[in-house]
Structure formats: structure tokens, C-alpha cells
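Please fill in the sequence for the structure shown.

STRUCTURE ENCODING:
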């Protein structure tokens, strides 16, 4: 089971920070945190997106599949950065954890086939290790379903934008779970993050008031094609 760990370097008061940074450029009084907070709410409400690039989230994503982490890397806006568990130095030859999709978990016959595939890969990697094959080469046989760990940094604007795509009901199921785990972790980190998550992290259909997808889930009405 994957988990998101918010690290201590994460901005504790993102809304207040937004208001202080904006106030500095507006010539406003930034010595009062309550005024900064109010100004930050205004920036969020008015969608002054550049201001939301200041608060940073440092996190550990642990126990999610290599496949979903590859998708996580596609959201590169706002200069996020990340490091991933090494396939060169970590010993995967003698076993690795892996993600089991619900469709397989709920089908005993399919589960038996799937776990067999993973066992065969692990056995093959062990044999290659015994043959003296360097880990950096044998690691090419590792499956996308193998769990991994990364540390990464994203700003608030990047995460808000990511939520519009990845909280959609038609997004990949593990990504939806990962993002919901992130929302819960940020809510627990501070009240200001809870406010941002509850008001600005949402699928794009809720954000825009209509669905833009060709194959809609039906949560929101589809936008009519332009005449």
C-alpha cells in the first residue's frame, strides 16, 4: 500500500506566504500575518497563478508502482524536482514488492498468474546475479508494477494543475489513489493546506463547470462543441 509523507521543509503557511510575497510587490503592509493571509485568499480567489508558485511541498512517495511514478514525472510545470530509488544500488535480485491492480486482486485465477509472473522475474534476476551480471544491467528486467520510492518537490500551482487532470474519474486508478493520499497528507500538515486542497484540488470538470473529455464519466455535463 502506497503512502505520501510530507517532509518538514514544506511551507507550513502557504496562504500567508502567498499574501506576503504579493504584498511586497504591491507596497502593502506585510508585517501583519492576518493581513497577509487575507491577501493570499484574494490571490487564490482571483487566480493570480504566479503567486501560488511560492509555497513548496517536499514529499516522499513510497510504495507506488514504477508505472505510476513514470506518469507522475510528466507534470513538469513549475520546476519540480525529484530523485528515485536506485535500480543500480538496491538489491532487487532477491525480491521486490509490487502493486496488484483491483481487477487482478479480485480474480483468484488472474492473481495466481500475476504473482507467478512476478516470481519468475525475481528468480531470473537472482540467476543473473549469480552469473555475475551487474545489477545495473539485470535491472532492465524489473517490471513496471514493482514498487519504488521517490523524494520530490512541487509548488502549489503545479499540484493544483495536476489535480485537475489526475483526480478525474477516468484517470489511471493508482494515480487517483496516489493523489487522494497526497490530499489527505497535506490536510494533516496544516490548516492552510487543508483550505487549499478542499477549495482548489479538484477534477477539471468541477473546476471548469463542464466536461471536456470525449469519453465523459457523466459527473458533469459535457461542453457543447462550438458551432
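FILLED IN BY: designer on duty
SEQUENCE:
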Amino acid at each position: 500500500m502506497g503512502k505520501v509523507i510530507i517532509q518538514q521543509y514544506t511551507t507550513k503557511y502557504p496562504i500567508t506566504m502567498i499574501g506576503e510575497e504579493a504584498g511586497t510587490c504591491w507596497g502593502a503592509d506585510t508585517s501583519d500575518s492576518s493581513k497577509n493571509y487575507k491577501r493570499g485568499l484574494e490571490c487564490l480567489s482571483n487566480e493570480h497563478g504566479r503567486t501560488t508558485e511560492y509555497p513548496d511541498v517536499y514529499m516522499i512517495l513510497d510504495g507506488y508502482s514504477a508505472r505510476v511514478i513514470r506518469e507522475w514525472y510528466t507534470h513538469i510545470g513549475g520546476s519540480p524536482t525529484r530523485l528515485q530509488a536506485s535500480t543500480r544500488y538496491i538489491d532487487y535480485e532477491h525480491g521486490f514488492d509490487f502493486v496488484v491492480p483491483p481487477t487482478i486482486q479480485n480474480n483468484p485465477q488472474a492473481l495466481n498468474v500475476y504473482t507467478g509472473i512476478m516470481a519468475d522475474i525475481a528468480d531470473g534476476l537472482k540467476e543473473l546475479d549469480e552469473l555475475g551480471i551487474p545489477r545495473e544491467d539485470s535491472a532492465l528486467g524489473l517490471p513496471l508494477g514493482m514498487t519504488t520510492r521517490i523524494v520530490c518537490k512541487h509548488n502549489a500551482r503545479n499540484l493544483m494543475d495536476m489535480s485537475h487532470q489526475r483526480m478525474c474519474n477516468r484517470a489511471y486508478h493508482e494515480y487517483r489513489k496516489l493523489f487522494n493520499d497526497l490530499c489527505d497528507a497535506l490536510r494533516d500538515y496544516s490548516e492552510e493546506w487543508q483550505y487549499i486542497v478542499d477549495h482548489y484540488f479538484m477534477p477539471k470538470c468541477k473546476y471548469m463547470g463542464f466536461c471536456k473529455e470525449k469519453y465523459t464519466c457523466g459527473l458533469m455535463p459535457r461542453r457543447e462543441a462550438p458551432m
